[in-house]
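ingest -> validate -> predict -> emit
validate: passed (alphabet ok, no gaps, 559 aa)
predict: started
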Amino acid sequence: MSAPAPSLSLRYPFLPYLLLLLPVALHTWVILAYAENIPWYDDVEMFVAFIQEYFKANTLSDKVYWLLKPSNEHRILLAKLVALLTYYVTGHMNFRLMIIIANLFMYGTLVILYRIFRSMQLPVWSFVPVPFFLLQPQFFLTSTWALTGLQHQGGTFLSFLVMYNLAKGGRNRFAGASFLQVLASLSMSNTLFGWLAGAVILWRQGHYRRLAAWAVLCAVAVFIYRYGYTYSQGTTSQKLFLTQPWLVIVSVFSFAGGSFDVLPFAPFLLRGIGPTIAGIILFALIAWFLSQMRWPFQKKILTLVPQLPNAIRDNFFIGIYILLLTNAAVVGMFRIRYGYNVILISNYMLYPALLLCVVYLNGLQTLNIQLRPRWRQIGLTLAVLLWAKSYFWHLPELANRSEFLRAWGYNQQHTGIGLGGERGGNLEAPIHNAMTGAVAGGYYKYPDNPVADYPVVLDTVATRITRNGDTYHLETPGPSGAVRQAFAVLQSDTETYLIPSNTPFYRPAFWLRRPVLGVQADVNNFFLRPGTYRVGWAIAANDKSIHFSRKTVTITAKY
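emit:
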């Protein structure tokens, strides 16, 4: 009888490390390839306008005021500190560097999860699913946007670090966790739930004096957070919960299972099936895991020993569950009024990914030794499938957003409209003033013209223009080679606009790198100055060139 074949771990001991490196390396490449040094929308107020006011302030109290000044429902202290750091390091406020730092925070969260895993003393194979769950582009509007990245990725890192330090115990760790929780509370509103999570951990540990100090710090932090705070929301959401509670409950489940959004462009009834079912399963698993933990109110247990590895991990998992599930409840209640698609919007999808990571690790601890291999197989299979799904659907969107920012950053620089404001809208003047002031003051420098190296060719190109309300649809025949980059060019006597084309990012064209029949672009009347514009195209395929057509569009002042 022949001996059984050795396992993969014995035959290829380096294989799990290579698999761990794959999502890390690919995510790093994506960030370095597509992160742009261009602010977008809220970035302008939160960073560009802030840094000018900060350096105008002559007193320490005024500088602290601008650091803590709230925006909508958030204070963003950590994000503003990082913005200042990029200014001092590079000589300008650098949004690309801010995005990179935000992703370093997420890598820090991954390290914390790895430390929890290593305390289980399991083979490294068992950790392989975690970076696949976490490092993927479903939440690209967090990982490639400076403001949301520093809020969500930075905030979750601080929260995970707080829970880790509290779970480990000790006076020094408690002091560090207290400081970090105050910082987190002033950096992202979601992290306020960390006070509740931390209180539960301290209660489980029996540290009642620390719990009292924690409560005092919580009151101080919440007071600071609410001081001078004028933004409010929730009345409409509360009415919705009272009249349609089932919709809010379904939204909570859908948000928790958001990583299973496998049909992101389907009608919402079809789209929501996977996330909702997955969310229900995750809630059931979490409830069972919690039931397997020891609790102080159980009479048969006279005392808990918080320094034991299992107790440390239990406390960490409980803290993270409170953070993530209360966040799911808040999103379900306060965002469903904007439509179901907002529940699964890219900005928020970091949290379902983190929930999957924690549930998977909790399962490794709770399940018996016979079930762990099957749990690992299920985890690895799901992680790789969800990771591949995410790249297939969302990498083209991420790449498209990079081109979008480059085009509209150029437009903002040269025409005063582009980075979030409409012509004549409430945001046009504030964004224009903030950007021109930042450039004049040396706080920000625009990147290079994205078509600076495109030669202008005299031959005209055929173009078809159709109008639908306030939107012009532009189309030109596709070149013989695969389109790598494309912009419509609208040029008047005084203005030139670049309008990014989605054509290179349609999935067949993007993934197969094959030629397209036509290159298309849509431009809204609201984003152009009045005038008559001749229409051209800047296309990179076999080579780069700018061709103009004989067609024009006329933008009127009234819309």
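The chain has two domains: 33-400, 451-559.
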